[in-house]
Amino acid sequence: MREILENISSVIGLTAMAIIIWGVVVAVSGFLKNEIARNTPEDNFKTRKEIRQNLGGYLLLGLEVLIAADIIETVANPTTQEVLILASIVVMRTFISYFLDKEIKELK
Q1: DSSP readout, 14-59?
Q2: Which of 18, 77, 86, 87 has its Cα between 20 and 30 A from that of 47?
Q3: Can you give the pTM of this predicted structure?
Q4: pLDDT tens track for 34-54
């Protein structure tokens, strides 16, 4: 059972990384298209703002999926050290998610 949970956790972690990487690819692609288009400064600003919002959404989703992977990993290896590590990771990622979400809302 432990091995199955560890494998599931690994797959979920890889999925989270894929989400984040895809978000970066989409953001860079949008940025390059925007720069090549040579729009007005106002249009450039608006498009960059939208790109940042989209990237932030991908980052938030990726972080939340990573937290799920960490929880499953801790269930597979429920030592005191693993629980403390999970708690610290969740706290850090929660802070990052909170401030990233706040910034995204401010951009809207």
Answers
A1: HHHHHHHHHHHHHHHHHHHHHHHHT--HHHHHHHHHHHHHHHHHHH
A2: 18
A3: 0.81
A4: 988 878 888 888 888 899 999
